[in-house]
Write the structure tokens for this entry.
Amino acid sequence: MKKIKESFEYISNLNIESLIKSIEINKEIINHVKVIKEGGEEKISNKVKDKLKNDDAYKVKFNKFCENLYFTYLYDEIIMANKIIKSMFPFDTYRKYDYYKAYLGSVEAEIKAGNLKEGDKIIFIGSGPLPISLIMMYEHFGIESIGIEIIPKVAELSRKLIRSLKLSDNIEIVTGDHFSIKTTENIKHVIVALAAEPKDEILQWLRPILSKNTSMSYRFSENPKLEGKLKELINNSKRRYREYDGYKTIRIIKPAPPTTNIIAVVEPIS
Ligand SMILES: C[S@@+](CC[C@H](N)C(=O)[O-])C[C@H]1O[C@@H](n2cnc3c(N)ncnc32)[C@H](O)[C@@H]1O
């Protein structure tokens, strides 16, 4: 199942138009997010460059693949979010998510990163259509949260999902980007999602507003997004680890497979 989902075939054949229509995402916003996402360096392997020169059909497919690539994570999450909302047993359906175990590994690492205890509250930047990390934080550890989501329709969908799980008192979804965070008072930990961009801007914005009791971590990947054969096609270096101006890394936590996200715990340099 996963193999098919992550394949070149799967991604190049996704119908993004119908996805946009299905949740009425504003196209301008999509383009904005896309531009942000394409800001990273992409390296196309020589093998693919040759194929692009010599094979027109492949070129069409490849362009479609590139166009769809950055939406795949949203696509899967939107489909799953809708399934949960429609389910008679939303919690059971949520637990069947393909990446449940992988996300749980990230969340456990973040519990350590923030030294989080039941009753603490966190902010999560880039909560997406299916804020699974926040649901897990509450379900397994009693941590409350505020999720920040830049695309209004996606935020709306995730609020609907949170309502279907009856967690609206514990998980709040705010429509906005990192600039909508004005204070971190009473917040124990801030998490920056793997797909939240631009990382540098997010970290610079947070630096002066991190209260002294608020810790922070961001997710990164050693094999960003793509693995196996797809890795040969495009190498997205943007989600790799790096040092950010004005911060020091105090800890790196690498969960066991199937989790691929690695957690960098950072602290402003005083
Ligand atoms: C793949 S999803 C979320 C991860 C996942 N649902 C979880 O619980 O860990 C990433 C989301 O971040 C949003 N996003 C990206 N940059 C952002 C930013 N600067 N502020 C808020 N949301 C952002 C995207 O629109 C996308 O919906």
In short: The chain has one domain: 78-268. Residues 33, 73-74, 77, 125-128, 130-133, 148-151, 154, 177-178, 193, 195-197, 202 surround S-adenosylmethionine (CB under 6 Å).
